[in-house]
Recover the amino acids of this structure.
């Protein structure tokens, strides 16, 4: 019975009481904690900084510790997608679905992988099943929204809004939505979510970087530079922000970008 | 034992969850995901190719969506696609009688066009045929088209006509011309049985025999050539019977033609003059006495010159075997080949009429 209740959903910042006490006990004993939870937390932190390759490695390490961690499997697939390895993501998702049948989050991740590969039919099926499966998460509605966005449906926005009302949705989910819009070359919609993310978490360097990317895509180079500088104020060594700042400054006078901006 | 997927409490010892069938024993499960770096193709190339495929598919979707929004969502696309076959689209819309009328009129026009093929009356009927088909397609779109401005309606009508004509009828005509080709015979001067304005069908590129036999009626191309200074035979098509095949010995004593020493059909060009000659045909030559079908000579030229210089026809000049007389409809029928024999020589003065039924 205790195991069943231990998986109840908690608020974003909350943790089960007994886990905290366990960690405290180990710290008191002087042992170094290398549990699956530890790697999973670090993987999430890395992902929220846009460091997808380290995040993937950390998700894998978490699974080495505990193969029953479904979020780590989902995280692996998501990182593969972020690294543009769609075929591998789909393959790995199929493998994970063999272990965890009809898991909603895995199905949502597979939907995204199929979609990025251009297989809309499979993506649609996966997304349908994912939304109908028990449980709820922002990822499912984000995948649904991406599918609709890909099909040119205006209801995509409703799905993204729905994803942000799910339990556990925070600034990073707004960043994820902004990046989805950016992927489909819709920076005007993306910047709205990126601005929301920076409003919710002004100290997050990755949120500012994504916002800068949106502004850069929109052709608003001055604001993109400002957002990059904000990001670098928070973390001066944050490589993606540095790289983006460089590319923004180089492309400031690009004639092609200006012409592209006229047609937006 | 709790299922990590659905949190169902299973009886210890089970390998799969009793509720969701997820694996409970994960000890042997690999957790190392496959990576693109393990692939032979570099990741950058794969990413580029994947992005290119995605962009192409995405552009198609965007274009499709824009077209649908711009045009009208009320268009019944399945019925429109079925409209490729006249009447079928209306049938799928539930207008069975109207669809049957459209199909019947279209079939009549098609038959009429087929009967007029190769003649000057063909193109007006062809225009009516294509126009009727386009009308039937436009009627399927009648409601959404009615909501469009006049200019756009006209543009769509023109687009439908162009699509039907260039993507359906002209390719179909091209394919048919590989099977049978109509030839409108005009300017017949010497062969009484073939009359002016007769329309014949000869075999196309896909149906022509590799070798022709004696007695077969063939359509062949007469390349323009100069017989003597100031005299030019114009390009044209000839329809005549093959008298001798490759490697035959052909001779004439001025009155009759002999093939390998046996009498052959006596050619008649409307004059009784034949040149005296003896020739051995090469491997790709046929002997065909020209009937001056659709042939014009510029300048002064004697028929005997034409007979001697145009009778040897190269195999690649022969377009096909004439097998059907299409018009006049009163004499429509099959044209059969009959090999000439010494006992019953064929006369070119009556080459076709006696074999056409």
């Amino acid at each position: 019975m205790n195991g069943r209740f231990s998986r109840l959903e908690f608020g974003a910042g909350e943790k089960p009481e007994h886990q905290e006490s366990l960690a405290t006990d180990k710290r008191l004993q002087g042992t170094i904690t290398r549990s699956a939870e530890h790697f999973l937390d670090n993987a999430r932190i890395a992902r929220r900084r846009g460091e997808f390759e380290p995040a993937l490695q950390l998700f894998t390490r978490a699974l080495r510790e505990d193969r029953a961690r479904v979020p780590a499997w989902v995280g692996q697939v998501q990182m593969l997608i972020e690294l543009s390895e769609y075929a591998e993501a789909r393959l790995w998702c199929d493998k994970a679905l063999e272990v965890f049948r009809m898991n909603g989050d895995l199905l949502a991740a597979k939907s995204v992988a199929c979609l990025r590969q251009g297989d809309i039919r499979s993506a649609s099926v996966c997304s349908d099943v994912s939304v109908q499966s028990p449980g709820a998460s922002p990822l499912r509605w984000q995948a649904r929204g991406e599918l609709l966005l890909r099909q040119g449906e205006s209801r995509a926005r409703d799905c993204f809004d729905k994803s942000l009302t799910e339990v556990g949705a925070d600034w990073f989910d707004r960043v994820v939505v902004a990046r989805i819009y950016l992927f489909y070359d819709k920076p005007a919609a993306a910047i709205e979510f990126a601005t929301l993310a920076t409003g919710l978490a002004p100290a997050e360097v990755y949120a500012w970087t994504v916002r800068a990317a949106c502004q850069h895509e929109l052709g608003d180079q001055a604001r993109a530079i400002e957002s990059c500088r904000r990001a670098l104020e928070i973390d001066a060594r944050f490589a993606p922000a540095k790289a983006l700042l460089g590319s923004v400054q180089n492309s400031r006078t690009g004639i092609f970008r200006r012409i592209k901006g006229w047609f937006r | 034992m709790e299922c990590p997927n659905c949190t169902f409490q299973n009886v210890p010892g089970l390998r799969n969850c009793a509720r969701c069938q997820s694996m409970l024993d994960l000890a042997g499960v690999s957790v190392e995901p496959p990576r693109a770096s393990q692939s032979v193709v570099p990741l950058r190339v794969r990413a580029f190719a994947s992005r290119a495929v995605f962009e192409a598919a995405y552009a198609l979707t965007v274009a499709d969506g824009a077209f649908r929004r711009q045009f009208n969502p009320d268009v019944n696309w399945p019925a429109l696609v079925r409209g490729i076959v006249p009447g079928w689209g209306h049938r799928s819309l539930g207008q069975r009688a109207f669809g049957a009328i459209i199909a019947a009129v279209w079939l009549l026009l098609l038959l009429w066009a087929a009967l007029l093929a190769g003649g000057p009356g063909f193109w007006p009927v062809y225009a009516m045929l294509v126009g009727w088909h386009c009308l039937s397609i436009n009627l399927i779109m009648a409601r959404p088209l009615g909501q469009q401005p006049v200019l756009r309606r006209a543009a769509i009508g023109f687009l439908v006509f162009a699509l039907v004509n260039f993507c359906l009828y002209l390719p179909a005509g091209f394919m048919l011309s590989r099977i049978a080709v109509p030839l409108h015979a005009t300017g017949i001067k010497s062969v009484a049985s073939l009359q002016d304005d007769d329309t014949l069908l000869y075999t196309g590129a896909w149906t022509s025999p590799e070798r022709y036999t004696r007695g077969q009626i063939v359509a062949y191309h007469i390349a323009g050539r100069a017989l003597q200074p100031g005299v030019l035979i114009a390009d044209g098509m000839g329809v005549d019977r093959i008298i001798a095949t490759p490697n035959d010995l052909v001779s004439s004593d001025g009155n009759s033609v002999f093939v390998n020493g046996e009498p052959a059909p006596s050619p008649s060009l409307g004059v009784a003059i034949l040149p005296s000659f003896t020739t051995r045909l090469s491997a790709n030559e046929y002997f065909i006495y020209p009937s001056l079908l659709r042939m014009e000579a510029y300048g002064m030229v004697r028929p005997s010159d034409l007979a001697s210089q145009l009778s040897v026809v190269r195999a690649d000049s022969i377009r096909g075997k004439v097998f059907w007389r299409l018009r006049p409809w009163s004499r429509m029928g099959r044209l059969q080949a009959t090999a000439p024999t010494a006992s019953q020589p064929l006369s070119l003065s009556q080459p076709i009429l006696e074999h056409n039924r």
About this structure: Confidence is low (pLDDT under 50) at residues 10-23 of chain A. Chain A is about 75% helix and 0% strand.
